[in-house]
Structures are given as C-alpha cells and as structure tokens.
Design goal:
The chain has eight helices and four strands, in the order ββββαααααααα. The chain is mainly α. The strands form two sheets. The protein has a two-stranded antiparallel sheet. The protein is globular.
Length: about 260
C-alpha cells in the first residue's frame, strides 16, 4: 500500500533497454520513451491537421492554425516582427512542453500496466531546454551585434556612480536565467503531480483503514483530486505559455540589446 501511494514513485526513471557505446551508458529509459512519444505525437497530429490545407479548414486544421497564430502573435508582440525568424524554435519549444505536460496528466498511458511520466517534472530536461534558449540568445546576440551585445548589461540612463553595481546585477541576472527558466517549469509540474498523488492516496488509505466508511469519508479528497486535476490541466498549458513567452523576452535581448 505504501509503495502504491508514494507520491515520489511516479518520478522514478526506469531502464527499458540497456545500451552502451564507447563506454557510455545510453540506456533507453521511460523518460526517453516519453520524449520520443511526445515528438512522435506532435508530428503525427500536426501532419494530420495540416495534411489537407483546405481553404475552408476543418476542426483539426483550425486548431493547428490557432496555435500557429497564437505563438506568432506572442513572438511578434514581445520581441518585434524581426523575431519571427525564431518562430520555428519558439513554436517547437511551446508544443513540445505542452504535449509533454498533457501526456503526464493521463494515468496508465499509453497502455494498461504503464504509468504516465511527466518529463518536464525532471530538472535535467527543463535545464536542457532552458540552456538551449540561453545559448541561442548569447550566440545570436554576439553573431549579430558583436561586442555591442554587451550593452545589454549597461542600461541607458543609469547614474554613473551606481552603474558598476547595476551592471553587476544585470550580468548575474543574465547568467542565472537558465536556472530560473528551468526551475519554474520543473517546480510547478513536480509540485502539482505530488499534490495530486497525495490526495489520491488519501482515498486509498481511508478505504483500507475504515472499510466501507472510508469510501464515504474519502468523498472529500476525491472531490479535491478532481478539482486539482482540472487545475493541473490549466497549469500544463500555462507553464508551456510562460516558458515560451520568457523565451520571446530573452530573444528580444538578442535582437535589441541596447533597449
């Protein structure tokens, strides 16, 4: 019973296939599987939705076009029209995180006997995504602006006597971006799934301890579980949106470092 209601057990990484190359352990895990599944489902769904490219779109095509327009508007309004060159990057991040978050909301997916796995609840995954954004900003900013990119750390209009202090804060803030960017997504997904598991575990424990009466007492945690599940679906979308819009803000610094 304790193992079934353990809220941390859902985050365990298990090896599905052992594989080694050049002395490295490249085992295929449940985390790897859900990353591949997320990518595969995204490609299949958008290929299906945009396959016909009809002038009068069907429902699937309408949804795909709405998502496309949503991300394009977010990027344009945050970083300017010239930021649309990064649209494939931002769109990929948004859809990957959104689909991964949603997959983690379905228990026993993709088949009975399996346990759903939320890859964004692992800091190594969110840190890799955040580092890809940070490196893109740094490399593109230096490539486009050269040393003028470092104007990002010297805000205009700051009095000279506090400029060194403000510059130091700006540098620390820039360096710490991957940390805050990754921890925000990781912590929200981790906390939400733990909370869901805890309340669901209350129902099982009450039924085991009190028998038939436990099911009556368990109505309250059951209602809380339902409410939290609905909230977590909203959080799954909001966290994908927050990660994407922060990416747009950071890309704006690469495009307009002097602003």
């Amino acid at each position: 019973m304790a193992a079934d209601t353990n809220p941390i057990k859902q985050f365990e990484v298990h090896t599905l296939f052992e594989f080694e190359a050049f002395g490295l352990n490249l085992a295929f895990t449940n985390s790897s599987f859900f990353m591949v599944l997320t990518t595969f489902l995204t490609i299949v769904l958008f290929s299906f939705a945009m396959g016909s490219r009809a002038m009068i779109p069907n429902r699937a095509q309408s949804v795909a076009e709405i998502i496309y327009g949503f991300v394009a508007d977010m990027l344009r309004s945050t970083a300017g029209s010239d930021a649309l060159r990064f649209f494939p990057f931002v769109f990929t991040l948004f859809i990957f995180i959104l689909v991964a978050n949603m997959l983690g909301m379905f228990p026993y997916f993709p088949a009975p006997g399996w346990h759903s796995f939320t890859i964004t609840s692992h800091i190594i995954v969110t840190a890799a995504l955040a580092m890809s954004v940070w490196l893109t900003v740094l490399v593109y900013g230096l490539f486009k602006h050269g040393f003028k990119f470092f104007k990002l750390f010297v805000p205009s209009g700051v009095p000279l006597y506090i400029l060194p202090f403000v510059t130091l804060i700006e540098i620390i803030s820039f360096i710490s971006r991957p940390v805050s960017h990754s921890v925000r997504l990781f912590a929200n997904m981790l906390a939400g799934h733990i909370l869901l598991k805890v309340f669901a575990g209350f129902i099982v424990m009450l039924a085991g301890a009190l028998g038939a009466a436990g099911y009556l007492v368990g109505i309250l945690p059951f209602a809380m579980t339902l409410a939290l599940t609905a909230l977590e679906f909203l959080v799954a979308f909001l966290q994908a949106y927050v990660f994407a819009i922060l990416t747009c803000i950071y890309l704006s610094d690469a495009l307009h470092p002097g602003h």
